[in-house]
Write a structure and sequence with these properties.
CATH topology of the largest domain: Heat Shock Protein 90
Largest sheet: 5 strands, antiparallel
Strand content: 15-25%
Distance between the termini: 123 Å
Helix content: 40-55%
Radius of gyration: 43 Å
Structural class: alpha+beta
Number of helices: 14
CATH class of the largest domain: Alpha Beta
CATH superfamily of the largest domain: Histidine kinase-like ATPase, C-terminal domain
Shape: rod-shaped
CATH architecture of the largest domain: 2-Layer Sandwich
Number of domains: 4
Order of helices and strands: HHHEEHHHHHEEEHHEHEEHEEHEEH
Strand order of the largest sheet: 2-1-5-4-3
Length: 488
């Protein structure tokens, strides 16, 4: 019987040692010690049958000790085994995370609650051009585009407060070489037992190519709309001129009627002005895009320039049933500017105000001196601009009213040219509008003279008091040529 017991103990010992080597089972050291003590004890019972012998008594002592360690080891193993399983699962999960973190093709980062990098993976480093050591020393705010950084991050705040489990957003980040790339960021929070965030894990994917493809599709769509609009703009005056020619031929054949002929000549002239305006806008837009649009900067009295332009157009505006006012808080202000370009800006803004202001409406031109800058505001009480259209009002290929049957004609590139010319002067142009109540366009120009940094020739260094140019009337006819609908 003792041999059977010894065989069982040896088999159990072999199996336990084998499982330990496989690392598939945890056995406390006391159980292993109990088996090692029990085997010699059973050998003592087997080899020495005399109950009074030393070995027989030693066998009982060894059996007692082995039982002690067996019960102790069993109790400890029963208590620690669940924790061992949890620890093993945790270690396996940690290894999987480590592998994924290091070898995933998209960028990953761990950031603390203060926004400091805790860890970044090689894919993120490769994406933005920094080594891991370089990136760890740079605050993440330094690589985020400043415009995106100033945009409120509501998702991040809600994630920190525990209102959401994760959030997704798109931002522009700076590559080490200086150019911008678009990234899609998925962020989740790791929290303690009290729900407080310990750190954030972010997946960061480069979507620059996707963005460019979408922008290209959008640009192609805008170009299609733009060329459809331009073709309409060219066709309309040509058709009117052609119809006027047919009517003139009819009048001549049926007996010359000077009144009717003069009316058709006037219609033809106005539509020729429209074609000239359209061609001028296209030429100027092309020059601006290719960098061939240069300014003829001269020291001029900006108050005199604006006042003369307003006076030149006041009678025309009055004939259209509107009221035009000019107001200024200074009598004279010498700044460096291109008078022809300033005239182009003002005539475009005034023609837009006339087009979109109803009968008996009011248009106010206000000039305000801010010291280092001059503000020129053109305000009307017309139909205004819808809020969602304001951000794109100065875009080249955009137009607020895209329909071919819109009430007011125009190619939609005039304001983009205005914006470009103002920026060439070092200024800005903005719009404030409430739909249904009117609009206000504000041109802000730097109050510098040619001696303050512009390279000018001897003629340009002289202060010139600009008078109304001889061809201004024709320019007004050209710029106001698409407000013919007011005469209907």
């Amino acid at each position: 019987m003792e041999y059977v017991v010894i065989s069982i103990f040896l088999g159990a010992l072999f199996l336990i040692i084998n499982e330990i080597r496989k690392k598939e089972f945890v056995v406390h050291e006391h159980i292993l010690l109990a088996l090692l003590i029990a085997i010699p004890g059973e050998l003592c019972f087997t080899l020495y049958k005399d109950m009074n012998s030393f070995y027989y008594i030693a066998g009982h002592i060894l059996r007692f000790v082995s039982y002690y360690y067996l019960f102790k080891g069993t109790f400890i193993s029963a208590v620690t085994y669940p924790y061992w399983k949890m620890e093993r699962a945790f270690n396996q999960s940690e290894k999987k995370f480590e592998y994924a973190f290091e070898y995933m093709s998209i960028g990953m980062a761990i950031v603390d609650v203060e926004g400091r990098w805790q860890r970044v993976n090689p894919s993120l480093c490769s994406m933005i051009g920094y080594s891991e050591d370089e990136l760890m020393k740079i605050p993440y705010q330094k690589i985020i585009c400043q415009y995106d950084l100033s945009t409120p991050n509501e998702g991040g705040q809600q994630l920190k407060e525990g209102k959401i489990k994760c959030f997704e957003l798109q931002k522009k980040v700076y590559h080490k070489l200086g150019y911008l790339i678009w990234v899609n960021i998925n962020c989740a929070a790791i929290r303690d037992n009290n729900g407080n965030p310990l750190y954030f894990i972010a997946h960061i994917q480069d979507i620059t190519d996707v963005k460019r493809a979408n922008e290209s599709l959008e640009h192609d769509k805008l170009k299609t709309e733009f060329f459809a609009n331009i073709s309409h703009e060219f066709r309309t005056p040509i058709n009117i001129i052609f119809c006027s020619l047919q009517l003139m031929e009819f009048y001549i054949k049926s007996g010359l009627d000077k009144v009717k002929v003069n009316k058709q000549v006037s219609v033809m002239r106005q539509n020729c002005y429209r074609l000239i305006r359209l061609v001028d806008n296209l030429i100027d837009a092309t020059k601006i895009d290719t960098g061939f649009c240069n300014l003829n900067m001269q020291n001029c009295d900006i108050v005199n320039i604006i006042e003369n332009i307003v006076l030149s157009t006041s009678e025309y505006v009055k004939c259209k049933g509107k009221e035009l006012q000019f107001d200024t808080d200074i009598e004279e202000k010498i700044i460096a500017c291109d008078t022809d370009r300033i005239e182009r800006i003002m005539l475009n803004l005034l023609s837009n105000a006339v087009k979109f202001t109803p009968q008996n409406g009011q248009i106010i031109v206000n000039l305000h001196d801010e010291g280092e800058f001059i503000n020129i505001a053109v305000k009307d009480n017309g139909i205004g601009i819808e809020k969602n259209q304001i951000p794109v009002i100065f875009d080249r290929l955009r137009q607020v009213d895209k329909s071919l049957r819109r009430e007011c004609e125009g190619s939609g590139i005039g304001l983009s040219i205005v914006k470009s010319i103002v920026e060439m002067h070092g200024g800005t142009v903005t719009v404030n509008s409430v739909y249904g109540s009117g609009s206000e366009f504000v041109v802000r120009l730097p109050a510098k003279t040619a001696d303050d940094g512009y390279e000018t020739n001897d003629m340009m260094k002289k202060d010139i008091k600009c008078d109304i140019q001889s061809n201004r009337v024709e320019k007004i006819h050209i710029e106001f040529s698409d407000v013919y609908f007011l005469d209907k």
